[in-house]
Amino acid sequence: MPDLHPEHDLDISVVRLDPDLPLPSYAHPGDAGADLHTTVDVHLAPGERALVPTGLSIALPEGYVALVHPRSGLAARHGLSIVNTPGTVDAGYRGEIKVLLINHDPVEAITLARGDRIAQLVVQRFERARFVEVGVLPESSRGAGGYGSTGTGQGS
Ligand SMILES: O=c1ccn([C@H]2C[C@H](O)[C@@H](COP(=O)(O)OP(=O)(O)OP(=O)(O)O)O2)c(=O)[nH]1
Ligand SMILES: [Mg+2]
C-alpha cells in the first residue's frame, strides 16, 4: 500500500506473537487506524464481552500512545464495540495488545474467526501534563456549562 506522506511515517517495533497473522495495516493511504486481528475464534452472546488477543506487542517511542478504537462497520452491522473505547496502550507497555470486545446487540450473537479484523489502532502524540494546583481557574465563555447546556437544536 503506497503511503500518502511516507516522510511522516513513524517506525514502531512490533513483535508478532502469532507469526501466521499479519502486522497491523492501514487499508488506505491516509487512514488513521491500522486494523488489528483476533488470534482466536470468538463467540459473543448478546451483551457478552471478551478480552481478545491480537498477537501483537509493540514498543511505542516515548511521547506516543496507541488508542484501540472500534471498527464502525462491525458496530453498525452487528453492534460490536469495545467496552473501554478507546483502549489506551501506553508507551511502556510490552505485553500483548488485547481488545475488550462487547456485543451490544440485544438478540443476535456475534461470531468472529481467527484472523478477522476486530479493531483499529490509532497512534498519536500526546502531551504529558504537569498538574499545577491553583485556588481559582481563569474565566472562560463556557464556564461550568456542560451536559447539554447549549441545547440540542440548531443553535441560537
Ligand atoms: O484496550 C486496551 C487497553 C489497555 N491495554 C494494555 C496496554 C496498556 O498500557 C495496559 C494498561 O491499560 P490501562 O491503563 O487502560 O489499564 P488499567 O486498568 O489502568 O491497568 P494498569 O493499572 O495496568 O495501568 O493494558 C491493551 O492491551 N488494550
Ligand atoms: Mg492504567
Automatic annotation (TrEMBL):
InterPro entries: dUTPase, dUTPase-like, dUTPase-like_sf, dUTPase_trimeric
Obligatory cofactor(s): Mg(2+)
Catalytic reaction list: dUTP + H2O = dUMP + diphosphate + H(+)
Residues reported in the UniProt entry to bind substrate: R71, S72, G73, N84, T88, V89, D90
One GO process term, biological-process aspect: dUMP biosynthetic process
Keywords, ordered alphabetically: Hydrolase, Magnesium, Metal-binding, Nucleotide metabolism
Pathway per the UniProt entry: Pyrimidine metabolism; dUMP biosynthesis; dUMP from dCTP (dUTP route): step 2/2
Top-rank lineage group of the source organism: Bacteria
The EC number(s) this enzyme carries: 3.6.1.23
Family: Belongs to the dUTPase family.
Name of the featured protein: Deoxyuridine 5'-triphosphate nucleotidohydrolase
Species annotation: Nocardioides cavernae
Gene of this entry: dut
